[in-house]
Amino acid sequence: MPVEVSPQVVVRRARAEVAEYMFDPAHDLEWTGGITASRPAQPGALRTGAQVERTAKFLGRSFTYRYVVTADEPGRMVELAVERPFPMTIRYELADHPDGTLVTIHATGEPGWFFRWATPLLRRRVHGSISADLERLRARLERDG
User: Fold this and answer.
1) Is 91 exposed, middle or buried (0-12, 13-18, 19+ CB in 10 A)?
2) Is the dihedral of CA 115, 2, 33, 82 positive or negative?
3) Which residues contact 121 (CB under 8 A, 6 or more apart)?
4) Which residues have CB under 8 Å from 45's CB, separation 6+?
5) For residue range 130-139, what is the model confidence (pLDDT) as tens digits?
6) Per-residue confidence (pLDDT) for residue 119, from 0 to 100
7) What pLDDT is stored for residue 112 in this prediction?
8) What are phi and psi of 102, to 5 degrees?
9) Alpha-carbon distance 142 to 145, whole Å?
């Protein structure tokens, strides 16, 4: 049973401004909860092939993982492949909205044997975590705008 969630939020800022902030891992610690470090292999916006190493806490465990950008459309979308805490594809999508920018984060993954028994709980936790991230992103960009 896969974990699949797609929380979204409207940010009252232009899509280009949201993309510039959200797609630059230098800002990860400002809006992404649960991570304690973010180390991009190269500075600047995420592009296909880019890698970022993060240290995070999830379900009471601390671990380091790396994500790789598997696809990008500048100003519109970035797709990431993540292996921990279980293999997932994370897709940041931005779309114009009458009130600013519609930001959606799609997360899809298959928990391994260790997490499989907890898939319903994981789905709720991943959805809640991403929703909280989006609210931090919205608050940060609207406050600083």
Assistant:
1) middle
2) positive
3) none
4) 19, 20, 23, 24, 74
5) 899 999 999 9
6) 58
7) 61
8) -85, 120
9) 5
